[in-house]
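User: Let's play a game. I give you a shape written as tokens, and you guess the letters that built it. Ready? Here's round one.
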């Protein structure tokens, strides 16, 4: 069981939708945390807050776009002011795949990668003021593939951004010396509305043919892993990979990730 986070200030970006962000916010609230719900979806954000309060938890909503430096600073400052300190940040905000990834690449990078980086940077300052904290970045298994058996051109820049989030996480491992731990979850297909609807439309044979997993990850299970990463004081700069057909796995520190590589003959 995750240790109690009573009266701890938690910020969850992208928590206004009916997906993982909301489930993560609700999970921390059940653990006793005061949660700052954040999203560009204001009605959805207020719904998350109402759900948390109805269950006896504490939550507030602040609209913030992670593509905006000003919004991010305002978000972190508000969490400190209203909760007394910021102890946990979950970088969950994500956008949709653009119709043309080359035309929409800048916006994708702004949301998926630079949004994570700017929110992390502001959170580090806040955590230094309060003596430490934990940050959990949400990446994706899509950032791990070296090519896909079934091409997904619409996800090309998304894959790049999520791969960078994984590397960004491990690069900040040394902040553990200041009591700030940054870890990452790279999940597979999650049973949110869009993926679940598509998954259910396919037969088992079609899933195999199209490279779709045999099962989807439950939203609440993903929220549990995020809470565990935030609470585990032994982990810093680490990545948990959770392929949909497997159990979550912690990547070994300094793993090169190329165990199945083959020798490359050089021409001289």
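Assistant: Ready! My guess for every position:
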């Amino acid at each position: 069981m995750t240790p109690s986070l009573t009266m701890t200030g938690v910020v969850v970006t992208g928590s206004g939708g009916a997906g993982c962000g909301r489930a993560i916010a609700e999970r921390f609230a059940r653990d006793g945390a005061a949660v700052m719900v954040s999203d560009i979806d204001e009605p959805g954000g207020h719904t998350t807050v109402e759900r948390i309060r109805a269950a006896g938890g504490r939550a507030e909503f602040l609209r913030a776009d992670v593509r905006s430096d000003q919004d991010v600073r305002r978000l972190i400052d508000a969490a400190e002011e209203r909760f007394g300190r910021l102890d946990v940040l979950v970088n969950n905000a994500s956008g949709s795949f653009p119709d043309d990834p080359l035309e929409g690449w800048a916006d994708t990078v702004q949301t998926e990668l630079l949004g994570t980086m700017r929110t992390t940077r502001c959170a580090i300052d806040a955590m230094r003021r309060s003596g430490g904290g934990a940050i959990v970045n949400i990446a994706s298994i899509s950032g791990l593939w070296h090519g896909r058996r079934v091409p997904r051109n619409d996800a090309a820049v998304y894959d790049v951004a999520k791969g960078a989030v994984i590397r960004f996480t491990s690069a900040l491992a040394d902040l553990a010396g200041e009591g700030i731990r940054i870890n990452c979850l790279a999940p597979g297909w999650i049973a949110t509305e869009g993926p679940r609807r598509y998954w259910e439309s396919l037969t088992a044979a079609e899933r195999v043919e199209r490279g779709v997993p045999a099962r989807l990850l439950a939203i609440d299970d993903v929220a549990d892993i995020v809470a565990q990463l935030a609470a585990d004081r032994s982990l810093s700069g680490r990545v948990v990979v959770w392929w949909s057909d497997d159990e979550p796995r912690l990547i070994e520190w300094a793993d090169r990730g190329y165990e199945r590589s083959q020798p490359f003959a050089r021409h001289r």
